[in-house]
TrEMBL record:
Its cofactor is pyridoxal 5'-phosphate. Its EC number is 2.4.1.1. GO terms for biological process: glycogen catabolic process. The modification N6-(pyridoxal phosphate)lysine is found at K648. This is Alpha-1,4 glucan phosphorylase. It comes from Streptococcus massiliensis. Keywords: Allosteric enzyme, Carbohydrate metabolism, Cytoplasm, Glycosyltransferase, Pyridoxal phosphate, Transferase. Gene3D superfamilies: Glycogen Phosphorylase B. Belongs to the glycogen phosphorylase family. It catalyses: [(1->4)-alpha-D-glucosyl](n) + phosphate = [(1->4)-alpha-D-glucosyl](n-1) + alpha-D-glucose 1-phosphate. It is found in: Cytoplasm. GO terms for cellular component: cytoplasm.
């Protein structure tokens, strides 16, 4: 959009005056933020309406992305950048004497997600709007986002994330007229009506009102505005008398109160099942209603609508869609089923079996009696059809939806849809060969890969403005609209001046982070040190503990030989642990106690520092990632489906230190062996251990004195205030045979870290590697990922 600085200043002052009745110098950053957001909303609204009008008029096919998590972080700068008015607003603020950074920091992160999965969903919203494909999000308007993490005495403490605060969500619009009803519980009978049609009779159902709040998703430089629809729950007016007490009302509002703070386990909780069904049913109901307004026949809905199931949480969608088509709109089973399969598609995000959702059949039937009947019918027909095709009984049993008294949600998503994709090449291969092998034999045509991606606008243009400016100087600014142009940087890989400039920009980002570290933890770190960063959810498979073991080894090296010639290091961690994940919390405690130990040890001469930054989230990631020299991507090969922080780090010039896991493999293929540091077992070696059952961690521990010394450090009192946690770690590594092969990969990790130390000594060489990484990072734009979804799965047109 077009906007002059003068007009912006006028609009901003008018809004401030109207809404706050104060003048600029008197306003707090929060008031200024709210005013700015409201000013921008006035710019967005006409674009939003126009987009809707055009979509209705053109009757284009629309994809709906169903996800129980969206993790956009802050929206202000993204919205300004995408509208094309970020610089105008910054100039306007400069004229008004307002500190833009203070206003930006007044926005609370929108953290309706745990980690990578929710972040991907948010990235896709931006990329859909930017590429111009009609794609809308569908999720839950949680009252509390992912918990706020405090570190107290080295322990994680969880506080509620009251993200609405006093401002509410400044970006949303409540859409009362699109509210729908969702039924739970009760009994269902099937009766024949006068025409002999079997119809369900509901008795004693609990009826909830689902109210949507729409959040605009603005495309970059195209004035295109899509919709992220988040559902809230309310008590329907005519049932209010059933809820006379505050407590009974709270039971209802609890449905959208909290995000489940766990991104790896499916918690078999009734409330979670209700959340999943609630957003899925509400979303599908409005989709069908808006489709029918076009006057087209329902059995052809797949020609105008795609429904995407992001992980298994919305995987009840095929069954609920069948229920709506048959019970509410009178379609026959077969035509409803064909439309359903053609409408639905599913992304798998993990091969960890504990994360593949299964529901107890009794609970499912109790909460969703009619949907359960439909699932049984789908399951029966599936079994009959496969038997008919001559599929082996064992294979049918492995893949059916209801078995051993459990409802397998991934199976429902695969059977009830036409596409299942993994999120990186290796991950998709593993799905085909292993996790979903039988499904792949039955439906090979449904399987495909869509490697995850990231929003370069947030992770480069916004979060690393100085680097972006440096890139502009070299190759012009066209890369800002076509990220693949970053490849032109390769022309400068041997230009000493350019390499010096890149090095300087990185040092400046490190200085900004160093200031934050000092302010938030009191620890002083030198920007001459290598900033070695691991930020992501805390999980055993991601192996933060392996990183810590290497730190302990360095500690002993320096204690033995204080004059040892090493490049100083600052190890930086950021990670939330699921509140019920005991092991992960012990690792956090140990990282913090090792930090206490080394940061206060004068004999180390500042060569080793360890920092744990609390409350890792998108806005903190934007500060940390541009300042990284080393990106730690050290999961056990085969366990990290894709990873996306690996891509963010690469884009701002960190060198990846990685196992051959997830998208690390694709990063290596892009930059070449010389511009990444790889270590550890590959997936075949890991699987061969599984097959041969030949891993024995105690053997490694007993025969390798270096490992033995590191592991013993957890239990011999070296690390103060953590003897309990230390012995738990020891038990996991030695008594429980080290499930994630840390001891096996340790030697090769240490060697890789020594290589990093050597490489960093040659600043020119390092800067060149950094530049090559940036130059190749365009490969991982989510704009391209979403284009592949749109063309290959959803069959959309721009
Ligand atoms: C990108 C991102 C993640 C995902 O990190 P991985 O290392 O890929 O697991 C998690 N949390 C936040 C806040 C992120 O920005």
């Amino acid at each position: 959009m077009q906007l002059t600085t003068e007009k912006f200043i006028r609009d901003f002052k008018d809004t401030l005056h109207e809404e706050q009745m104060i003048k600029v110098p008197d306003a707090s950053p929060a008031e200024l933020f709210e005013t700015l957001a409201h000013t921008i909303r006035k710019y967005i609204t006409p674009l939003w309406l126009e987009r809707r009008r055009k979509l209705v008029e053109s009757q284009q096919k629309i994809a709906y992305y169903f996800s129980i998590e969206f993790l956009p972080g802050r929206m202000l700068e993204t919205n300004l950048l995408n509208l094309g008015i970020l610089d105008t607003v910054k100039e306007g603020f400069a004229e008004l004497g307002v500190d833009f950074d203070a206003v930006r920091n007044a926005e609370h992160d929108m953290a309706l997600g745990n980690g990578g999965l929710g972040r991907l969903a948010a990235a896709f919203m931006d990329s859909l709007a930017t590429t111009g494909y009609p794609g809308f999000g569908n999720g839950i308007r949680y009252q509390y986002g992912l918990f706020k993490q405090k570190i107290v005495n080295g322990y994680q403490v969880e506080l509620p994330d009251d993200w609405f605060g006093s401002l509410g969500n400044v970006w949303e619009t409540r859409k009362d007229h699109d509210a729908v009803f969702v039924n739970l519980y009760g009994n269902v009978y099937l009766r024949a009506n006068e025409e002999g049609r079997i119809t369900p009779i509901y008795e004693n159902a609990q009826v909830l009102r689902a109210v949507p709040y729409d959040v605009p998703q603005i495309g970059f430089g195209n004035d295109n505005v899509n919709n992220l629809r988040l559902w809230d729950v309310e008590i329907p007016e005519k049932f209010e008398h059933f809820y006379p007490t505050l407590e009974s009302r709270r039971k209802v509002t609890d449905i959208t109160a909290v995000l489940y703070p766990d991104d790896s386990n499916s918690e078999g909780k009734e409330l979670r099942l209700i959340q999943e069904y609630f957003m899925t049913s509400a979303g599908l109901q409005t989709i069908i209603k808006s489709y029918l307004k076009q006057g087209l026949p329902l059995e052809k809905i797949h020609e105008k609508v795609s429904v995407h199931i992001n992980d298994t949480h919305p995987a009840v969608a095929p069954a609920e869609f069948m229920r709506l088509l048959i019970d509410e709109y009178g379609l026959e089973w077969n035509e409803a089923w064909q439309a359903t399969v053609k409408t639905m598609s599913y992304t798998n995000h993990t091969i960890l079996s504990e994360a593949l959702e299964k529901w107890d059949a009794g609970l499912f039937k109790y909460v969703l009696p009619r949907v359960y009947q439909i699932i049984l019918e789908i399951d029966n027909r599936y079994v009959a059809e496969l038997a008919n095709r001559g599929i082996a009984p064992e294979m049918i049993e492995n893949t059916r939806i209801v078995k051993d008294n459990q409802v397998h949600m991934a199976h429902l998503a695969i059977i009830g849809g036409h596409s299942i994709n993994g999120v990186a090449k290796l991950h998709t291969e593993l799905l085909k060969e292993d996790t979903l092998r039988d499904f792949y034999a039955i439906y090979p045509e449904k399987f495909n890969n869509k490697t995850n991606g990231i929003i370069q606008r947030r992770w480069l243009q916004i979060s690393d403005e100085p680097l972006s400016a440096e890139i502009d100087k070299l190759i012009g600014n066209h890369w800002r609209t076509d990220i693949h142009e970053l490849r032109k940087l390769l022309d400068y890989q041997n230009d000493q001046q350019v390499l010096n400039d890149f090095y300087r920009v990185k040092q400046e980002a490190k200085a900004r982070l160093a200031a934050y570290i000092k302010e938030s933890t009191g620890v002083e770190v030198s920007t001459e040190a290598i900033f070695d960063v691991q930020v992501k959810r805390l999980h055993a498979y991601k192996r933060q503990l392996l990183n810590l073991m290497h730190i302990i080894k360095l500690y002993w090296d320096l204690k033995d030989n204080p004059d040892k010639d090493v490049v100083p290091r600052v190890f930086i961690f950021g990670a939330k642990a699921a509140p019920g994940y005991h092991f992960a919390k012990s690792v956090i405690k140990l990282i913090n106690e090792v930090a206490n130990l080394v940061n206060h040890d004068e004999s180390l001469q500042g060569k080793l520092k360890v920092v744990f930054l609390e409350n890792y989230r998108v806005s903190l990631a934007e500060l940390i990632i541009p300042a990284a020299d080393v990106s730690e991507q050290i999961s056990l090969a085969s366990k990290e489906a894709s990873g996306t922080s690996n891509m963010k780090f690469m884009m701002t010039g960190a060198i990846t230190l990685a196992t051959l896991d997830g998208a690390n493999i694709e990063i290596k293929d892009e930059v070449g062996d010389d511009n990444i540091v790889i270590f550890g077992m590959d997936k075949d070696e890991v699987y061969s251990h599984y097959q041969r059952h030949d891993y024995y961690s105690r053997g490694v521990y007993e025969s390798n004195p270096v490992i033995r010394r590191v592991v013993d450090t957890f239990i011999n009192g070296t690390i103060p205030n953590a003897s309990q946690e230390g012995s738990e770690i020891y038990e996991a590594l030695i008594t429980h045979n080290d499930e994630y092969f840390l001891l096996e990969d340790f030697a090769s990790y240490v060697a890789a870290q020594e290589k990093i130390d050597q490489l960093y000594r040659d600043k020119g060489k390092w800067a060149k590697m950094s530049l090559v990484n940036i130059a190749h990072s365009g490969k991982f734009t989510s704009d391209d990922t979403i284009t592949q979804y749109a063309q290959e799965i959803w069959n959309l047109k721009k």
